[in-house]
Amino acid sequence: xxxxxxxxxxxxxxxxxxxxxxxxxxxxxxxxxxxxxxxxxxxxxxxxxxxxxxxxxxxxxxxxxxxxxxxxxxxxxxxxxxxxxxxxxxxxxxxxxxxxxxxxxxxxxxxxxxxxxxxxxxxxxxxxxxxxxxxxxxxxxxxxxxxxxxxxxxxxxxxxxxxxxxxxxxxxxxxxxxxxxxxxxxxxxxxxxxxxxxxxxxxxxxxxxxxxxxxxxxxxxxxxxxxxxxxxxxxxxxxxxxxxxxxxxxxxxxxxxxxxxxxxxxxxxxxxxxxxxxxxxxxxxxxxxxxxxxxxxxxxxxxxxxxxxxxxxxxxxxxxxxxxxxxxxxxxxxxxxxxxxxxxxxxxxxxxxxxxxxxxxxxxxxxxxxxxxxxxxxxxxxxxxxxxxxxxxxxxxxxxxx
Length: 402
Fold this sequence. Notes:
alpha/beta, 6-stranded mixed β-sheet
């Protein structure tokens, strides 16, 4: 439960609810403001830091714009970013730090589904809203029995602006079978929740379409020598490899594959990064799917792209920039609703009220219309297939998946 922060006395100024109150004439315009902190959890160092820093910067931009435009009168937003190193144990520690900050009313992130699993319960127990722009593990919102049709939301505080592996895997299988005309695939995953779940979803749809899985294997995501699995792929007669995993291992796997046999590697949004191409001299022709439509092709994203450039961030917004901005803005919108319903102030039970307000959040975001269904999943199921062409990712097909 939310506890009142310590009462401060500075002249006549008193803190009466969650969120520190500042004597800041630049805030609400009425002489003082309350501070709301939004947390960001992502890998800010290590192999996946390109994606993590894009998440951090995009959330930071949303906070800055909300403050500049006084989106919530009387509220000043601040960002608290923590590095989870893509490790569930670190993510769990970060969750406790976020929970302990009484001014914090929502968390954006994490990047990895495995990290999310370590954070969902403590956040739900604390009634602290969590919105991931990147998690795609279907079980995170629909429970472990979703494959049998028994969908049950396990954690009420968890939301996401990215669609699920069930949707992404099916989209990838359809694209490879129908558009790329590939019928024989070797399936590899990195044994992590995201990679294994994505590969399983791909396999289900691909075989239903009439495609053939000519071999399967698992790799250690920390390895960089994949010659043994490449040998198996070569002898299988596969016309493509589908890899459930992320770009730090996917890039060398692709390069070593092409040193032996000229077939493309396909993966999910964990592969869709400029760093995949930087780490892979033979990335040409490889394919990846990612959530949403390319922001560069969306009228709704023009301001985001311009603002990001103006802000001068040295790191690219990467695959999840638009979704992160929307995830952060959904928390801001929920805070706005709560403050408006409480005579322009934060209530004592702000966390639980913000969580309740998340159910009705609906706005036009960077990525298009933003809202959440009964499971906390985004209602935007747009997916895009990309291919490395001329040394860069090029969009090939975007469509909403039902």
